[in-house]
Write a structure and sequence with these properties.
- There is one protein chain.
- This protein is an alpha/beta fold and 287 residues long.
- It has two domains: 3-191, 3-Layer(aba) Sandwich (Rossmann fold); 197-283.
- It is built from 13 helices and nine strands.
- The longest helix is centred in the last third of the chain and has 19 residues, at 213-231.
- It is elongated.
């Protein structure tokens, strides 16, 4: 039985016999904001489509990639993009080594080469922060060819059957730029929203099982108000970060809720008016 069929069967078995939410919650993994997003990402990966995750910081893009890695028992190699990212950071570099008294030149394989050869997941984070001239080297890796000619060694690398690419972007953030169309067209794109409602509560309870119901409800109510203001355009996306909300609960177990929200959410916002609005929303729930 080939790997493609095995992966398809694993998805089908899980859908037939388990609650996806419950399975992933128990593993401490990603929880889908709806009934289809997680399934659709898995289907795309099984079909060997490079996946692009779009969403604000703290929405769970990296957690989703980590959960895919755990679900398929497939190790993940990460690339954190920046303006300093170059071909060596992606593919590897040559180095001089001494062995048995002989000096030789060796090639240290980078994350792209390792993932392609071993059939692992390549996770490219904040892909729209890389310089536009750096990423075209991956075009042949991301399309139907799934092949790479290493410019440092001239080795032609054909991707392992299980090789998977997942990328993530934070759109509209400082330091980012629109993705090159040739690169974007190689991905299947998914919008990853912030969790809310029952899904968010499941994540919170899993993260902090011993926290009081009262504290959880207070923080979730504050989070709901923050999301509404983000939708209304009065707060930036960062204010509704699930990651920050979880951090706030962790601090609020040991200090007043107001200070916990101030440290984890309000103080991270650049705009003074936004910081004030966050604390005003907190004051409607905390007396």
């Amino acid at each position: 039985m080939n790997d493609y069929v095995e992966k398809e069967q694993k998805i089908r078995i899980q859908k037939e016999h388990d609650s996806i939410y419950q399975v992933l919650i128990q593993d401490g993994g990603y929880v889908s904001p709806n009934e289809y997003l997680w399934d659709d990402v898995l289907i795309s990966i099984v079909l060997k489509k490079p996946v692009l995750l779009k969403g604000p910081t703290g929405s769970g893009k990296t957690k989703l990639a980590q959960t895919v890695s755990k679900f398929f028992n497939q190790p993940m190699h990460s690339v954190n993009c920046s303006v300093d990212l170059d071909a060596e950071s992606l593919l590897g570099f040559k180095t001089i080594i001494q062995k048995d008294g002989v000096t030789t030149i060796d090639f240290v394989e980078g994350p792209v080469v390792q993932a392609m050869k071993k059939g692992h997941i390549l996770y490219i984070d904040e892909i729209n922060m890389a310089k536009s001239e750096t990423l075209p080297i991956l075009h042949s890796v991301l399309d139907h060819r799934r092949v790479l000619t290493n410019p440092f060694t001239n080795e032609v690398i054909v991707a392992h059957e299980d090789f998977t690419v997942i990328s993530a972007i934070n759109e509209g953030y400082v330091g980012t730029s629109p993705m090159n169309e040739a690169l974007k067209n190689r991905f299947v794109s998914f919008t990853i929203p912030y969790l809310s409602g029952i899904e968010l509560k499941k994540v919170v309870i899993n993260e902090y099982p011993n926290t009081s119901e009262e504290l959880i409800e207070t923080i979730l109510n504050i989070g709901d108000d923050l999301r509404k203001q983000v939708v209304n355009g009065l707060l930036s996306d960062d204010a509704a970060s699930v990651r920050s909300l979880l951090d706030a609960i962790g601090l609020a177990e040991h200090m007043p809720v107001r200070r916990a929200i101030q440290y984890t959410i309000s103080e991270k916002l650049d705009d003074k008016i936004e910081r004030r609005l966050v604390m005003e929303l907190v004051d409607t729930w905390v007396k």
